Amino acid sequence: MLFRSHTIDQPGSLLRIKAAKGMGKTVLLEKILAYARQQQYKTVNLSFLLLDGSILQDLERFLRWFCRYVSVKLNIPYQADFWDEGLGSIYNCTTYFEDCLLATLQRPLVLALDNIDRIFTEKSVADGFLSMLRSWYDNAQTPGIWQKLRLILANSTAAYLAPDINGSPFNVGVEVEIGRAHV
Fold it and tell me: pLDDT digit string (tens) for 3-16?
């Protein structure tokens, strides 16, 4: 447990928790978030099981929902007028996180995305969202505001439609696979 919790102490870190259903992903995620709260990090735990299926069918609608959800959980007023239709939803979501969320936080943000495999069935949403998360991770590898963000992704090994691993965050960061021996 110590190894996994301390991973989020690293600026711009990404932790991937993978296991079969019912193997304890969410419990492990909650323990890591409890550790983060002890460090006085800001935390947001988003279970994709809460996601309304109609939101999942459109990338822009999904990313607006995502920004609003994180804003609400951080008690930061959502700025709907921030969105610039001409710049595209991934750019808008990225600049929203930079300017409206990360720039306002004094402490790191641990963003836990549980049951992320739920979006795999909607290819355009999954491809866009996961490539955006990968770009956020890449941005955090150099000094700057993105180092405040620490990501935790939890997904089931039973997911049938895995994303393109090269354009997603699933081949970077630290992987913990529950139910298998790991370092």
Answer: 455 788 999 999 88
| Mean pLDDT within 95-106 | 96
Residue 73 DSSP one-character state:
H
Residue 91: C-alpha distances to residues 62, 64, 98, 129, 177 (Å): 14, 12, 10, 11, 32
Q: Report the largest interatomic distance among the alpha carbons of the chain, rounded to a whole angstrom.
A: 48
Q: Where are the alpha helices (DSSP H) in 19-148?
A: 25-38, 59-73, 89-96, 123-139
**162-176 pLDDT per residue, tens:** 555 556 666 666 666
d(CA 24, CA 17): 10
DSSP 134-151: HHHHHHTTSSSGGGGEEE
How far is the C-alpha of 107 from the C-alpha of 39, rounded, in Å? Answer: 9
